[in-house]
Amino acid sequence: MAKGDEGRARSRRVIARNKRATHEFLILDELECGIQLVGTEVKSLRQGRVSLQEAYAVIKRGELWIMRLHVPEYSHGNKHNHEQTRDRKLLAKKREILKWEKAVREKGTTLVPLEILWDGSLVKLRIGLARGKKLHDKRQAKREKDDRREMDRAAKAGRRGD
């Protein structure tokens, strides 16, 4: 923590969440890292404009990168506005990157962005080490979710006395 930040709690606010990631993939591990942005990208994120749908993460030359993250141009920007889907460097510790690089070399594992959020005034990206789900896994997860919802409804009805 920076000097003087000991007493202040940082507010954490989700900007965008990749809902398809948890449906399509089984998340094995998660990592929260910083993201290298330019000024107009930050302003666009403050407006809540970002899409994680087509984004994915890779490790190139010992560095973590996010590819195809769509941050629309800032509406009040000038001719120096950012490119919308440029590759952006992620900021993580070297040993974490090396650990994940070994895990990604395994067949069937990949790095998937889960959500982008504000951590105080900083932008953070949560990525997950993921393995693709088979169709029967997706069906089972949907069945479990429906069962949980049904049990919650029954418990709520029981508390009300219906």
What's a concise summary of this model?
The protein is of the alpha+beta class and 162 residues long.
Could you explain the architecture of this structure?
This protein is of the alpha+beta class. It has a single domain (12-133), classed as Small Protein B, Chain: A. The chain is built from four helices and seven strands, in the order E-H-E-H-E-E-E-H-E-E-H. The chain has helices at residues 19-24, 39-46, 94-105, 135-160; strands at 12-17, 25-35, 56-60, 63-67, 88-91, 109-119, 122-132. A seven-stranded antiparallel beta sheet has the order 1-6-7-2-5-4-3. Strand 6 and strand 7 (122-132) form a beta hairpin. 19% of the residues are buried. The mean pLDDT is 84.
Task: Please describe the topology of this protein.
Elements (H helix, E strand, L loop, with lengths): L11 E6 L1 H6 E11 L3 H8 L9 E5 L2 E5 L20 E4 L2 H12 L3 E11 L2 E11 L2 H26 L2
Antiparallel strand pairs: 1-6, 2-5, 2-7, 3-4, 4-5, 6-7
The strands making up the biggest β-sheet line up spatially as 1-6-7-2-5-4-3
Q: Give the uncertain stretches in residue-range form.
A: none
Output the structural class. alpha+beta
Distance between the termini: 51 Å
Q: How large is the radius of gyration? A: 19 Å
- Sheet-strand content, in percent, reads 25-35%
Looking at the overall shape, the CATH architecture is Beta Barrel
CATH 4th-level superfamily: Small protein B
**CATH topology name:** Small Protein B, Chain: A
Residue-averaged pLDDT? 84
